[in-house]
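CO-FOLDING WORKSHEET

Operator: S.A.
Ligand of interest: adenosine-5'-diphosphate
Run index: 253
Mode: holo prediction, single chain
Checklist:
[x] sequence pasted
[x] SMILES validated
[ ] output reviewed
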Amino acid sequence: MSAVLAIASGKGGTGKTTVCACLGAALSRGGKRVLAVDCDFGFRNLDLALGLGETAVFDSADAINGICDVRDAVIRHPKYKNLSFLCAPQDEKKADFAPASFATLLRELETEYDYMLLDCPAGLGHAFDCAISAADRAVIVTIPQTFALRDAQKAADAIIGRGVSDVRLIVNMVRTRHISRGYSKNIDEIMDTVGLPLLGVVPYDENISAYQNRRMDVMDDESLMSARAFSNIARRLEGERVPILKIRNRRLR
Ligand SMILES: Nc1ncnc2c1ncn2[C@@H]1O[C@H](COP(=O)(O)OP(=O)(O)O)[C@@H](O)[C@H]1O
Ligand SMILES: [Mg+2]
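OUTPUT RECEIVED:
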C-alpha cells in the first residue's frame, strides 16, 4: 500500500513542484519506491523539475480515458531507479473526468509504490479535487509571506474538510535576515498562523532555480543547504526524528 501524499499550497509559486521533485529523489535514494504524479492539469512542470524534459508520450487523462494502460503512461526515471513519473495532461479539456476516476487510477498502482507524491495545482479547482480525492495525507508548502499564509490556511481547511486529517507544513524559501529584521514572521508564528504541525523548513536558495534552468539536479549537491533540508524532510516522512535545520542563506555558487 502506498502513502499517497498531496503537496498543495493554495497560492502558486510557493515551491510545490520543487518539493515534489526533491522529495521524490530523496525518498527513492533511500530505497523507497516512489511515483511522482503531476496533478497540475494544463500547467504541468514536474517533468522539467525531475529533469525528464518532454519524454512522456501518455498522461493520466489518456489512462483514465482508455487510450493507454496506466503502466504505459508511467515513466521510469533514468537516474533514480526507484522513482517513476506520471504526467499530467497539457490540455485541461482532456481532464474532464470525475475526481473519483483519478483516485481509482492511482489505486491500481498502490501495491507497486511506497509513496505517491501528488504535485497539486495552485487554487482549489478540479485538478486539486482529483488529487485530494486520491490522497490519504497532505503537505502544505508555504512561504513566509502574508498572502501565502492566508492561502495555506484555506488550502489546509479544504483538505481537512475532505477528510484528510494528516496534514503537515513545509515552510519554503526562508530567509533568516527577513526574520531577524522583522520583515517576515518566524517559523513558530507561521505554524501558529497556519495551524499545522511542522514537517520541515527549506532555506531560500538562489541555486534551486539556477540548477533547474540548467537541468541540473539540486539533490546531487549535498553542499546545498536546501538539498539537505529536502533529505531531512524525506527522513521525517519515514518517521525519523531529525532536528530542524538551522538556516544560513548562501549566495549563488
Ligand atoms: N527554496 C527555494 N529557494 C529559492 N527558490 C525556490 C525555492 N523553492 C522553489 N524555488 C523557485 O521558486 C519558483 C516556483 O517554484 P515551483 O516549485 O514551481 O512552485 P509551485 O509548484 O508551487 O508553483 C521556481 O522558480 C523555483 O525554482
Ligand atoms: Mg507547480
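REVIEW:
The chain has eleven helices and eight strands.
The radius of gyration is 17 Å.
[x] output reviewed
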